[in-house]
Write a structure and sequence with these properties.
The chain is of the alpha/beta class. The chain is 37% helix and 19% strand. The protein has 2 domains: 161 residues, 3-Layer(aba) Sandwich (D-Maltodextrin-Binding Protein, domain 2), CATH 3.40.190.10; 96 residues, D-Maltodextrin-Binding Protein, domain 2 (3-Layer(aba) Sandwich). Belongs to the bacterial solute-binding protein 3 family.
């Protein structure tokens, strides 16, 4: 290379270095500097994350997130930790974490390989499976019984993708409808606009328990998916993830998570003061024997 080009090359390299974006500040560092923790929550993912009669976010995942917030506060070494709450839907929850608008997503989100390209997950707090919610007088017992009928699921969810794949692969002739949230999907079934709502069974039971007429609805069909549900957090924030993972593992191995589970799945919960009566599944019990954030999906 001619020597007269060296000064220009050096200048270009220096300019490129200056133009490099500064690394994003981690959540712990931001809190040490007086920042607030932002918890994303759902509005109708009963019993994981939803609004009570006073419009406050409550639920199983919310309780876990508040436990995590306390260990984050201690790790950051601050006396008090301000918490902000950000409502999200199924369609924008990943973006809220990926874009830095929220630090933890406290809901019912499935940890899968596609999502791990954009966000991180901690140890699963529940393992669910997608089934069908139909009206009590509907004779359908499986997805194949709904050929030619309208089936609804919530936009941006794993069950919607699975049903779409099954519909195309097996030529089921289903008419798929996308709802913006779980309540809208439930309304489509109640109003007769859809024959079935496909979603994680635990969420379906929660919607039934909180509906004005629980006897008018039922959950049917075999499991279409296996869904390890976990709290989302930013990808690449290793310090935050270590704190969150360690606390989730501690809650599980110490069994402190069990009364939290029982509160939301076995006892009456708001707003209808009805109990889901869902004992812990053998899948979740087995998974929690060796709690890890690594899932085979």
């Amino acid at each position: 290379m001619p020597s007269h080009r060296l000064p220009g090359l050096v200048a270009a390299l220096l300019l490129a270095c200056v133009a490099l974006p500064a690394p994003a500040q981690g959540v712990l560092d931001r809190i040490k500097s007086g920042g607030r923790l932002v918890l994303a929550h759902r509005e109708s993912s009963i019993p994981f994350s939803y609004l009570d009669a006073q419009g406050r976010p409550v639920g199983y995942a919310m309780d876990l997130c508040l436990r995590l917030a306390e260990v984050i506060r201690k790790k950051a070494g601050v006396r008090e930790l301000g918490i902000d709450y950000l409502p999200v839907k199924a369609s924008d929850r990943l973006a809220a974490i990926e874009q830095g608008r929220a630090d933890l997503e406290c809901g019912s989100t499935t940890n899968n390989a596609e999502r791990r390209e954009k966000v991180a997950f901690t140890v699963p707090h529940f393992i669910a499976g997608a089934r069908l919610l139909v009206r009590a007088n509907n004779p359908a017992t499986r997805l194949e019984d709904l050929s030619g009928k309208t089936v609804v699921s919530t936009r941006g969810t794993t069950p919607l993708k699975v049903v779409d794949q099954l519909n195309r692969q097996h030529l089921m002739k289903l008419n798929l409808s996308e709802a913006s949230d779980h309540q809208q999907a439930l309304k489509q079934v109640l109003d007769g606009q859809a024959e079935a709502f496909v979603m994680d069974d635990v969420l379906l039971y929660g919607l039934i328990a909180s509906s004005p007429s629980p006897a008018d609805l039922k959950v049917v069909g075999r499991y279409l998916t296996t869904e390890p549900l976990a709290i989302m957090l930013p990808k690449g924030d290793t310090a935050l993830k270590q704190v969150v993972d360690e606390e989730m593992k501690r809650l599980i191995t110490s069994r402190e998570i069990h009364p939290i589970y029982e509160r939301w799945f076995m006892r009456p919960i708001p707003p209808a003061n009805a109990a889901l009566n869902l004992p812990m599944s053998y899948l979740l019990r087995d998974f929690w024997k060796y709690p890890t954030d690594q899932v085979p999906f």
